[in-house]
Amino acid sequence: MHPYSLVIHGGAGTILKEDMTPELEAAYTRGLEEALDAGYAVLEQGGSAVNAVKAAIVVLEDNLLFNAGRGAVFTKKGVQEMDAAIMDGKDREAGAVAGVRNVRNPIELAAEVMHNSNHVFLSGKGANDFAIKQGIKLEPDEYFFSQFRYDQWKALRDSDNYSLDHTHQGLEELMKDKKFGTVGAVACDMDGNIAAGTSTGGMTNKKYGRIGDSPVLGAGTYANNATCGISCTGHGEPFIKAVAAYDVAAHMEYKGMSLHDAMHAVVHEKLVALNGEGGMIGVDAQGNVAMMFNSAGMYRAMQKSTGERKIGIYKD
């Protein structure tokens, strides 16, 4: 049997133990465990990497703690606009959506785009119309409301500032306490096929229909059986400029680098040169995994068929 594995992330940034209550830390850990268990169960039962990725991300999207799906942050207009992408490394089929509203699980909509639209990337009203046509579950605005996200937006809404994700301090701490709220998963299944997916609510108080790296194939999400599956989390603009996810694959394909070394070069050299803060998770077709970040922390977890399992929040 081919070794199989799953890696997930729930965002990166200035995540410090001294800023975290034991209760909150336990809640984040529990959220990561639930998503890891959901995705890994698919692999254990012989399911595909794509379905494992989707299953893990759905659980993260349904958790208010993470900036995706139900926990998505407020835009300048006081609504949620969500982005997601999923990619199959076997044939490089992919689906992505940007600026969608009221979609309970944007990753499921991205998967519908991949399988049933003859397109790769849909946005805004068109993506929502497609969601309705495909019977994707929608929710009212109230479903996406959390007092915590609302208070965060209220502190910013009368300014031109934006926040890179949840802060547990006041406004004066916002830029110091950067958290890049994205969720993602990468998997290698029993057949040696790999997949990657990413989902996000973007930035609090974002304007102009801003879109980050998460739904952009090659920037925040990429999968190719010949190299790797990557899901990124960070300040999206530098990740787009660096074509970060694909750059890992390029290092592997053209330089013959391992997954770990290729991710290290991108996260700690290429992105740093562009002032890009954040991280990424990766898997290759041999089931090797890596979780790498240049920020203070990254919500992350992994499990392999060899029995190895890890859950982490802070720097080791």
TrEMBL record:
Gene3D superfamilies per the UniProt record, alphabetical: (Glycosyl)asparaginase (3.60.20.30)
One of the Pfam families matching this protein, by short name: Asparaginase_2
Domain of life assignment: Bacteria
Name of the featured protein: Isoaspartyl peptidase/L-asparaginase family protein
